[in-house]
Amino acid sequence: MQDTDKRIINNVPIVKIYTEKFKTVVVSVYFRTPLTSREATVRSLLSRMMIKQTDKFKTNAALLEYLAEHYGAHLTSNVVKKGSDHIVKFSIEFVNGKFIMEDMDMLGDITAVLKDVLYSPFNYDDSDQAFFQREKRLMTNRLKSMRDNYSQRAFEMLLETMFETEDYKHLSFGDLETLETLTLEDVKAAHEKMMASDDMSILAAGKVEDNIFDYLSQLHSRETAKMYPYTGYPVRSVSEVKYETAHERIEQAKVNLGFRVQYQDSKDVMSLNVFNQLFGGSSASLLFTNIREKLSLAYSIHSQVDVKNGYMFVLAGVDNDNIQIFEDAVKKEIQRVIDGDFEASFVEEIKRNMLSSRKESMDKPRGLISLNYNSLLKEQSVKAPKAPWTEQLKKISKDDVIQIAKKIQLDTVFTLKGGDDDDK
């Protein structure tokens, strides 16, 4: 049994997802604002600081000890890009009080911890400078280590090239250059803005009763509602393919291709979802089967999509001598789809796998919350009600996949290869 109840209390949407599948409860708090490089960086640092220590728990060890005493409650923060927005999410998973013999107000204690997490930055002062500098240093080291990952670096450079004048090039966790300039005052200001102005939502999943609204409504209140449409970036056509190459001392080239999809109607979004799985998003895909397995042109290869914005990326590890051959092979696979050179049964198989994956996500509390948050965003953005995700998926045919393939335009090819700049 599963039931969803949405209420707006204190001008904040709160969603209760009742399910008897789990012995734990997950509460997630989302904050959404338009994406910029500075916002992404300072909010990423802020989110890391907020779950490390609070007004009540002056050290991370004290906070972790308290959570451990509450049957191993687990507190996390996360930052993501979604549409044209930057999202900060705080989640805490804990054992449902119904299954505890001990006399403990689990929900009350956990809500108090979450409120402590959300409100502590209001009180940051000079005594928190050492804490701030430590977290800033740890985040700096993390971003530097990510740059040392050549696959990650190649993808970042693809984004910088493809979206040179667009905010989408910014990463959800920010960048080193901005991080170096941040002060504790910047973090405090970002927190105040987040609590006052962000689109905020609270979701809870588990075997919970209506009294959870009484608890969760204590987390935050606003004088006016702050709920904004969830939008993507405008569709842009490609006038000329951009080619960029960088060199590193690596054995295996990283070849990344970026595509823009010329969306024309609402069905295109689900069509792209199915196309991606068929094209390169699964182990049964054309890219994996034909380019990696049959032609041995890639050590690794996959495609991924941002369906909200209509972007697709093909990321691969390729021998330095096979870069052009590889690019041509990828184009050939897209043309194969356009030509309808695949079976309708393949599309049905892909759809079954997608449905199975979605059901698997719903068998986990965090996955269930993520799916319901997506639904919440759509409610705020779509004037006419949309059919459920599963119904949209069922309606996708082989012809829909062919039609979306025709709307995919190669925008950028970025290659990180071995050798020197003079090597051709």
From TrEMBL:
It comes from Jeotgalicoccus aerolatus. This is Zn-dependent peptidase. Residues 182-353 form the Peptidase M16 C-terminal domain. Gene3D superfamilies: Metalloenzyme, LuxS/M16 peptidase-like. PANTHER family: INACTIVE METALLOPROTEASE YMFF-RELATED, METALLOPROTEASE.
